[in-house]
Amino acid sequence: MAGFLGWRALVRRGVPAPAGVAIAAVVLAALGGCVRHREAKAGPWTVAALPRPYYGLVAVGIGQRVFMANGLVRLSVADVTRRVDILNVGSGQWSVARLSQPRRNMAGAAVGSYVVFVGGSGSRGNSSRRIDVCDVATGKWSTAQLPYALDSPAAVGIGKLAIIAGGYGGRDNSFSDAVYFFNPATGTLRRGGRLSQARTGMAATVVGHYALFGGGSSGTGFSDVVDIWNSKTGEWSAARLSVPRDMLAATSVGDMALFAGGDCATGNGASAAVDIFHAATEKWTTARLSQPRFNLAATSVGRYAIFAGGCGPNGTDSRVVDIFDSKNGKWSTARLSQARNDPAAATAGGEAIFAGGITRGGKPSAVVDIFRPAK
To answer: Checking CA distances to 65, which of 90, 112, 163, 264 falls within 20 to 30 Å?
Structure first.
C-alpha cells in the first residue's frame, strides 16, 4: 500500500521524503534468526513489463484481467493519475482506462463481475470520497460517493458487497473506525458497523464467509487487532495478531487466511511473523517467513499463498518470495527477477502477478513477475 506508510518505508531505506510529507525516520537494526525454507519447485516463473515504471499500484484480479491503478512514476506527492492499466493475462495485451478522479492511496476489490477502487488522496493530499466502479462484463465505468473522504482505507469483496473499512479522514479527519457496505450492482452504500479500533494501513482478506481486517496503525501506534465480519450472521468479532504491526500483507488459500510480515515496534522493525486464521475451526496458528520484511505483496493461486518482495534486512529491497502450500502445509522460497519494495499483487487466469514497486535508489519499477503453478 502506498501513502504516508509507503513514504515512511522510503525514508527508512534512505530515500528522502518530498516536501510537505512529515515522516519520522526509523533505522533498521541488523537482522538475525531467519527461518530456513526449501527452494520452490511449485511452478515456473516468467517476466513481463508494465507500460511504464510504477510504484504504489493497487492491483485487482478478475477473470482473465488484472486492473492496476494508483500507480506513481515519480517520488512526488503531486504525482497522481487517473490512469488504469489493464493486463489480459490470456492474450498478454494491455489496455488503458481512466478513473473519474486522479488520486493515490486507494483500496481496490473485486465483487462478482465488478472492480471497485475507493477513497485515496489527490495531488494536494486532500482525501477523496470517490468510488470508481468498472462493470467488467460491459466495460462501463460508474461512480459513487462515500459519506466522508478516506485516505488509505482497506477493501475486500465478499458475496455481492465490497466492504470498505478504516483509513484516515472521515468526519473527524483522523483515524477512522467506519465500515461501509457497497453493492456495485445497485450502486447503494450503507453503514456496516465499526471496527473495534480506528486505524489505517490494514491488510484485508476473505476466507469462506469471513472478511478479516488485520493490523495497521492507530493513533497510539501499531495495531495487533483483527476485526472479523461473519457474512452468515452479520456480526463482528475481534482477534489478535501475535505481533502488532502495519505494512503487512494478507491473502487466503483453502480455509486459511494468512497475515504475514509487516513493520513492528520491536527489534529491528521488520517482522517475519505469519498469523493464520483457520475458518473451519476459527482457531489461529503461527508460522514464519524466511526473511523479515514489510511492504511486501501477497496473493494466492491454486493451492499456494505467495508473499513477495518488500523491505527487508537493513532497509534493503527484497527479492525473496515465500510460498505456502496449503495441501501439505509446507513452505518454500523463490526469487523475484528484481529486488523491490511495495510491489502490487493480484491473481487472474490462474496466474499470480507481482507488478511494479520501488527499486534501488527509490526508482519505480516496470517489472512484472508472473507465477503459474505446476499442473
So the answer is: 163
CB distance 114 to 137 below 8 Å? no
Q: Read off the pLDDT of residues 36-80 as tens digits, 9 standing for 90 and up.
A: 344 445 569 999 999 999 999 999 999 999 999 987 876 655 578
Residue 84 C-alpha cell reads as 488504469
Among residues of the chain, what percentage have pLDDT more than 70?
86
- For residue 305, which phi and psi values (nearest 5 degrees)? -105, 130
Cell of 251: 491473502
Q: Would you state the cell numbers that stand for residue 332, as one nine-digit string?
A: 518454500
pLDDT band at 7 (very low <50, low <70, confident <90, very high): very low
C-alpha cell at 311: 523491505
* Spatial CB neighbours of 136, under 8 Å, sequence gap ≥ 6: 62, 63, 65, 113, 114, 115
CATH class for the region spanning 4-371: mainly beta
One-letter amino acid of 105: N
Domains of the chain: which residue ranges? Answer: 4-371
**327 has a pLDDT exceeding 80:** yes
For the entire predicted model, the pTM comes to: 0.89
Choose the most confident range, by mean pLDDT, from 100-104, 293-297, 309-313: 293-297
Are 300 and 307 a contacting pair, CB within 8 Å? no
Identify any residues that bridge with 205 across adjacent strands, giving them in sequence order: 212
pLDDT of residue 42: 57
Q: Which residues of 122-139 are buried (b: 16+ CB within 10 A; e: fewer)?
A: beeeebbbbbbbbebeee
| Cβ-Cβ contacts under 8 Å for 12 (sequence gap 6 or more) | 25, 26, 27, 28, 269, 311, 315
Buried b vs exposed e over 283-307: b needs ≥16 C-beta within 10 Å?
ebeebbbbbbbbbbbbbbbbebbbb
